[in-house]
Structures are given as C-alpha cells and as structure tokens.
Amino acid sequence: MKVVFIDLPGPVKGFNSGLAYLAAIAKQNQATPLIIDLNNNPVKQQERINALKTLRADIIGISLKSHTLKSGLELAQQIAGWSAVLIAGGAEVTLEKEQFLRENPVFHYAFTGEAENSLPVFMKFLKGETTPDRVGRLCYRAQEEAGKIKSNSVELI
Q1: Burial letters for 28-60: b for 16+ Cβ neighbours within 10 Å, e otherwise?
Q2: How many CB atoms lie within 10 A of CB 76?
Q3: Which of the two residues, 157 and 44, has the higher pLDDT score?
Q4: 9, 38 in Cβ contact below 8 A?
Q5: Spatial separation of the C-alpha atoms in residues 1 and 3, rounded to whole Å
Q6: In Å, how far from its chain's centre is CA 69?
C-alpha cells in the first residue's frame, strides 16, 4: 500500500512532526510512505503534485490548518479524480469534525486529532479486514445510513 502525506505551504516554516509520525507508522505496517513537503520546499510545486499521479498512491492525506485550508481544498479538487482515497487531517479538521466532511465532499475521510493509533486500523479497513466504526478518530459517510456523517470516538495517545 502506498501512502502519501502532503504538508501545504504556510506562513510558519518547520518540520511537520505529525506527518513524520504517520509515515513511520505506515512503514511499520508494511506500507510505503512518502511525505511531500510543500511548506519548506515549495520548488516545482505543481510538478511534484503532478508526479503523484504516476505514483498511484492508495491513500493521499492532506494536513490542513486554518491558513492552508483554501490551498488544501484546491489541491484536493485537483487530485479528486485519481484512484487514491483522499483523507484530511490537521487542526482545521479537528476543530470542525463532521461539519468539515459535510462541507467538503471531495474528501473521502477525515481524521480528528492524532491518528497514529488509527492509521493502521484504517489501512485494515481499506483492505476489507475491519469496518469504519472500528477506526478511532475517523469521520466518514456511513454507507448503511444514506451517507450520514459519523465521527468515531477519540482515544488518547
């Protein structure tokens, strides 16, 4: 499974340790992770995004903060037609929860808060080994309830 995490350009530069943790967790669970750091390295941004399509990622996660929300939504629209499952995470999603997913149908799923414990279970869900209600911190559209948006419990790390 190929998992890509994207850190968007913003006014505050620095290492996104949350995405690094998620990449490590993905790797520990037999996935191939990649972080695209557009915040600290904005060179050839569009070329790097376009190259993602040939990578054929299974999951693309975008880290959203208040100041990156607009550019994150634009990027999500750009890659929405790809075969990857598109997930949102970050402070903006954590604040809005179900409302975020309701207002941004381009995303398939959203994580609220830290997803280090949830990511491996989410990957099992995508493989058909469990159900979405078992994935902590996950916001999703419930297929059995006409797309009602649900938010799973929050477990502390």
Answers
A1: ebebebbbbbbbeeeeeeeeeeeebeeeebbbb
A2: 19
A3: 44
A4: yes
A5: 6
A6: 13
